[in-house]
Amino acid sequence: MKLILINKRHGGTKTITLGFWSKAILFVCVLALPLTAVTLMALQWSVVKGEHSLLAPNISESWEQQLATQKAEIKRTRQEAASKLEALTLRVAELQARLVRLDALGERVTLAAKLDTDEFDFSQRPALGGPSDELADHALNVPSFMDAIDDLAFKIDDRQHQLQVLETLLSNKKIEESVFVAGRPVTKGYLSSHYGRRNDPFSGREAWHAGVDFAGKDGSDIVAVAAGVVTWSAERYGYGNLVEINHGNGFKTRYAHCKENLVKAGDVVKKGQVIALMGSSGRSTGPHVHFEVYKHGRTVDPASYIRRASR
Ligand SMILES: [Zn+2]
């Protein structure tokens, strides 16, 4: 017997002559082995089915039991897989709903903050880049719902990041606006004395007036002109009941001659918050608030801050 092998690449041939033993081995490989395998399989099948009497009946019984257990296990695994899939589907739906809500919120925030809508476009996929080494058919093998989950998780992360940036921008803007010293320290009342040189109401001699006075009704509201931290709330010589607020950026304001202070040192106050009631405590001739503005430790004319419009 001769075997001719042809090399596909070079076109060359190789001839092998088979002797008796080679033929015998070939026969065993080609015919005998598959036959044996088929026979064994048939035997096992009949044993499993309980039709063969080669094995003792008790062994056959235990095999049947094992098979029943395995069948039950497969059934349970299938049920588990089905319920897991159901849970995952529900999760995807929930994530999708959350994303829709996040998108709506994002758009609203972008509009409210009057931010560049091109920069924070919630209807577009975020701009990302980088080459991918992944093979096209690899992606095709991944179940589509897993893809959906990954995609959603990615989108939610991205939106969250965008909203965080927006929030930071907004809060910075808000803080900047609220600590901006502007407006009057009273809701009702009139400016009764300007900043600068004047005749002292007690001595009549020329003196320096380090603030402005607003006259009004006894017990009327005195409000903070900007957000800040109360650094003084007690009596102070000449000032009577005094409230002092630090607004940061080197700004401080003082509200003097109060009837009653409504805040205490360490309190954080908002712009427009009522901090005291108007009175005539200390060196005062009648109900008014003596209002001072400090910039880097020195008094400045509050008039320009009162006049400037709130941002
Ligand atoms: Zn005054």
Descriptive report:
By secondary structure, this protein is of the alpha+beta class. It folds into 3 domains: 2-54; 75-125 and 140-178, no CATH class; 190-307, Glucose Permease (Domain IIA) (Distorted Sandwich). It is 43% helix and 24% strand. It is built from 5 helices and 14 strands. The protein has helices spanning 20-49, 57-112, 136-141, 144-178, 302-307; strands at residues 2-6, 13-17, 190-193, 196-199, 206-209, 212-215, 221-223, 228-236, 240-248, 251-261, 268-269, 274-278, 288-295, 298-300. Strands 3, 6, 7, 8, 9, 10, 11, 12, 13 and 14 form a 10-stranded antiparallel β-sheet that branches. A hairpin with a 2-residue loop joins strand 9 (240-248) and strand 10 (251-261). Helix 2 (57-112) packs parallel to helix 4 (144-178). The longest helix has 56 residues, at 57-112. It is rod-shaped and about 140 Å long. It starts with a strand and ends with a helix. It binds zinc ion (ZN). Zinc ion (ZN) binds next to loops.
TL;DR?
The protein has 311 residues and is an alpha+beta fold. Helices cover 43% and strands 24% of the residues.
Keywords:
alpha+beta; binds zinc ion; 10-stranded antiparallel beta sheet; 311 residues; 14 strands; Glucose Permease (Domain IIA)
The CATH class name of the largest domain reads Mainly Beta
Mean pLDDT metric: 81
- Which CATH architecture of the largest domain is right? Distorted Sandwich
* C-alpha Rg (nearest Å): 44 Å
CATH homologous superfamily placement of the largest domain: Glucose Permease (Domain IIA)
The best one-word shape is rod-shaped
**From the helix content, strand content and strand pairing, which structural class follows?**
alpha+beta
What is the terminal-to-terminal distance? 103 Å
Q: How many structural domains can be distinguished in the coordinates?
A: 3
SSE run: EEHHHHEEEEEEEEEEEEH
**What small-molecule ligands were found?**
zinc ion
Enumerate how many helices there are, as a single number: 5
- Low-pLDDT segments: 135-141
Strand segment count: 14
Percent helix, as a range, is 40-55%
Describe the main β-sheet briefly: 10 strands, antiparallel
- In the CATH hierarchy, the third-tier topology of the largest domain is known as Glucose Permease (Domain IIA)
In what range is the share of β-strand residues?
A: 15-25%
